[in-house]
Amino acid sequence: MMRDAGAGERPSPGTQEPSVGEVAEIANRSRLAWKAEQLRVWDLLQLITPWLLGTISTAVYFGWVLPVSGAGFWPEGASVLGLVAVSVPWVLLGHTLPIRRRTLGPVSAGIYFVGLLALCVCLMTYSEIFLVFTIAGFFHAYLLRPWPAGVLGVLATSVALNGSAMRVWADPAPVVLAEFLLIVAVQSAAIGVGIVLTARSEPEERKREELVERLEAALHENAGLHKQLVVQARESGAQDERQRLAGEIHDTLAQGLAGIITQLQAAERSVSVQGETEEHVSRALGLARSSLTEARRSVKALAPQELGRAQLPDALRTLTERWSQDQEIRAQVEVTGTREPLSPAIEVSLFRVAQESLTNVAKHAEASRVGVTLSYTGTEVLLDVRDDGRGFADGAGTGFGLTSMRQRVRGVGGQVEVQSAPGEGTSVSARVPAIAPGGTRAKGEDGR
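Request: output the structure for the sequence above.
Response:
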């Protein structure tokens, strides 16, 4: 059977092909790494070229050229050795150390180059083998700045090298001179173009290399910041959970215990009346059982018991009726608008607002009537709890219950307003977005 031509190139199901951005990033890193490697190789050539070529020329001269010529070490060999001895510190102090320390300036580079070329010319007068050492001038011409000085250095090196090799100065015949000029022109143009291109591209490449190093340092710094953010996020999550538990305890256990205390105090005051005492004790036991159930639900992060059996309007009605019976205060629940299913978080928040508001009425308001209104407006759901109690002045409503209420409603994208004045009762209004259980907003808001 014939295999599919592209079967061998398909990625396995468990592998994931890199995105275009990742491929581009990899390619860019490879190119930068290649450029950086080129710069390192070029720097290495700049450093070792004069030493390598000088060593070769000197070794060949003293090992082969001088003995073959028949001349004695004195005075020719001694003169060459003296020039080589001068060349060593000249190259070391004028070239190698400044390059390694990155202290080679344009003026010092020019002085070094002129001295090097002069030493090469002197050595070539003793032997043509030092033409090899003179080739280092082409490499060191790249150190001259600005680039016209580098091109001039190439021209001077070519003139010295070819003039000595072709013996132009000894026999300036027209044919030899023309050949010399042609070779110098071609050689200078070929190497000079490299200097011009390098002068334009090398600074950019070095800047790019420095930028890559800075980016790597920034990545390491970002990694440290990311760890710090993870720690802060974990601490923030723990703080949010502590606030949630504090709110749940306040909305369930604290309110239930407050009700139990109220009923037991009433039973204590009515101890002389047998029926009333039993009634208050029975209510206290009911509140205790209810508080225990709510505590267990809070530990499991479940909705209030009333919401577990009915939707929000019915749960508010049940809560208000039971509260009215326990506190012996008239209370009325009104629902307006078209009922819509809401997110559990929205329903729990509104239920807790009503629960906290009714608890505050029982503890502080001394009211005779309470009204609870739940309004569906399409895009929002509004809950109002009003009483005709004694009210309070501005700035007095800053207890934990109101603070927890505001934080809870703010957590689902809503807001709470409390309006009150001494002798005029209190109104608590909560406004939240009408978010369905699936997380979508009401239709009326989608069309805005």
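The CA atoms of residues 397 and 418 lie 8 Å apart.
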